[in-house]
TrEMBL record:
<feature type="transmembrane region" description="Helical">
    <location>
        <begin position="38"/>
        <end position="60"/>
    </location>
</feature>
<dbReference type="InterPro" id="IPR016195">
    <property type="entry name" value="Pol/histidinol_Pase-like"/>
</dbReference>
<dbReference type="InterPro" id="IPR052018">
    <property type="entry name" value="PHP_domain"/>
</dbReference>
<protein>
    <recommendedName>
        <fullName>Polymerase/histidinol phosphatase N-terminal domain-containing protein</fullName>
    </recommendedName>
</protein>
<keyword id="KW-0472">Membrane</keyword>
<feature type="region of interest" description="Disordered">
    <location>
        <begin position="248"/>
        <end position="271"/>
    </location>
</feature>
<dbReference type="InterPro" id="IPR006311">
    <property type="entry name" value="TAT_signal"/>
</dbReference>
<keyword id="KW-0812">Transmembrane</keyword>
<dbReference type="InterPro" id="IPR003141">
    <property type="entry name" value="Pol/His_phosphatase_N"/>
</dbReference>
<feature type="domain" description="Polymerase/histidinol phosphatase N-terminal">
    <location>
        <begin position="79"/>
        <end position="154"/>
    </location>
</feature>
<dbReference type="Pfam" id="PF02811">
    <property type="entry name" value="PHP"/>
</dbReference>
<keyword id="KW-1133">Transmembrane helix</keyword>
<dbReference type="InterPro" id="IPR004013">
    <property type="entry name" value="PHP_dom"/>
</dbReference>
Amino acid sequence: MCRTPAHPSSAPEGTAAFADLSVPEKELSPADLSRRRFLLNSGLLGIGALGVTALGGLAARPAAATGAGGSRALHWMAGDHHVHTQYSYDGMYTIEQQAAGALRHGLDWLVITDHGHAAHEKFAVEATYADIVVSRAKHPELLLWQGLEWNVPGGEHATVFFDGARDEIQLLRAFERLFDSRINGTGASSPENEAKALEALAWLDTALRTGAASSALFLINHVMRRGRYAPRDLRAYRDKAPDIAVGMEGAPGAQNEPRARGDFNNTADASSWPGWRPEHYPTYGGFDSMTGILGGMWDSLLAEGKGWWITANSDGHFYNGDTTVEPSRPADWYDQHGRYPDPVDGGVPQRHADFWPGQFSRTVVGATSRSYGAVMEAIKAGRSWVSMGGLVDGLHVDAHAPGNAPATLGGRLSVRRGDTVTLTVSVDLAGRPNANEEIPRLARLDLIRGAITGPAADPDVFTAPDVQVVESFTPRGRGRVAEFHYRFRDVREPFYFRLRGTDGRRSAPGGMEPAADTGRNESPWSDLWCYTNPVFVELT
């Protein structure tokens, strides 16, 4: 635990003691002293007299403005923030293979997120970056990041990545060394380890506030796979660093895993939060139960009126139907090198749990420009929707109210009591075969409304009773574009709304909700869904 110094500190509020040079070394614990000396040796603790901040770096750029043109004024760009390579202890593909695969399946942006690991931190950080630089030069049309799948202390996994940092590689390595639970042995569920995760987010927040990085994002991966995250954890992450901890995978990768979609266990284990019930462990239509259960965990977070966004991605390790295989190697190869040898073509299609980035799942963000900073800002702002199996090609959502510019996904309308909010939705229906050689058909688009009730009195609440489907839209005719309209009349209380769509081929018995994926996963292609992030409506 970091002690508060008895003397004044010049470091920003929330800076850990080991990063605060005004705290004498004699006041540091042995662990914090080791952390400080590591950062000093990495060049990440600068000299205040020279104007270098506690983490070193450039002045942060202000967030991009959304503009007043509504959804049509944005660049809608598809991407994936959760992909593994040969630099991950459980990966295989080269960075170039992943980049080329993402482009082949129509993506505009991609984040490489190899697992935190002692060998990765020791050998792979610079080597990964060198390969990324080569792929960036070869494919300038793809925005390609180097990130990390962080082993969260006291939790499971999350994507972490930076933009615009002077010492991006040092930042990534320092973060992994200091806070990755696999490296530091902090993976067990305990108050101390959970506090360590919050300390890590505070460290990232300091990197932003001091200018070491222009942007940083944290997105929780496969949230309910083992049920390790309690509701209070999600709220604590969000509130500790609201510009960094912005959301979670609404739908996990591994959608083709035959045991269960997403490779979710469907049962609790010793590390699971005891408040979760059996119905929380499977996916629903391929979506994490936190998203797929109407009025569940996601809605309980949105009911507080704070942003918490969902994504979908591949979690790509090994791709179904690909002929690429791993070459033979000694068992300790990764530990000795921090990477695996380049894979080879085995000539025989393989059965795997994963799809290529963009082949099945994608996150589509509304960016103000085709740039790294704009994509990260769009993710942070919640201007995004997610889709499976090419269910829809495009989605434009705009909400209008008197005296307001149109608001799109992730946005906010501030209206007078009694005003009407008009919603316009335009869907570009699928017009080409997906990777399963079918043209998907959107059978129904549900409009979901939830009340904004304010901060939760109980941080472990995971339900929001005042959530319902207020309208279901059905595309008519043979046109490629379906347009829908809805009016929220005489607004008296703050609320949010979001959308979800389905191909209609599978639902819960006797209703319209997505069915729990509790049996063997024969084919995810027969149960396709799309979801949007919400729009908030507030009263002046």
